[in-house]
Amino acid sequence: MGFGGRMDGCGQCIKYSMFIANFIIFVGGAIMFGLGIWTVVDKNFMNELLGTNLFAGATYVLIVTSALVCMVSFFGCIGAAKEVKCMLLTYFIVMFLIFVTMLIGGILGVVFREKVEQTMRQEMHSSLKLYGNRRAVTQAWDQTQTRLKCCGIDGWRDWNGLVPESCCQVTYGGQRKPCIEAPSPLTLYANGCSVVTTNFVKEHAAIIGGTGIALAALIIFGMIFSCSLFKMIE
pTM of the entire structure? Predict the structure, then answer.
């Protein structure tokens, strides 16, 4: 049944507010889903150097959670439009569980940001010795050095004279300057990969974390509107 008496105006206001909030939540969930896919497809080249699976694991959780947010927000819009109490109650429960999951994910993200530099340096020191012997490690180093324009852990001297071609600077013509036989600061990337990669991961985590916080805030509004609407429906 619908709203009655003097509650009509207030009820309709909450109804449309919930509809708008869920539309924004749907858009936010879609953005987070896109960020998650982008991370998996475009940013997985450094997984071998991270020293932890927390970053990859958090990304997959992000994809699943954001997809679920899109689905639930869509049903929330239907529940508000049709004034179905069962759908509103289900919406509230699922959104609450998603909110808790995102809160835990945010805490893990903070922990990851604090430990990433130490674990990455340790993994880099270990993997540096495996360069050329293990394909996954070799590709991770080459792609990281090429894409982030860095060389070694703290600099090119970490390679002890056996500098990979991926450390060489690229000229405007698209060719790499000769630097393998006679490496020098003029032909090699100047920055070490430890600081560059750490900053890269932290900045990327901050983008995802900021989007997650904004989406969590919207979810709170969605839950408030659904609870209010649930109580007003006769």
Answer: 0.73
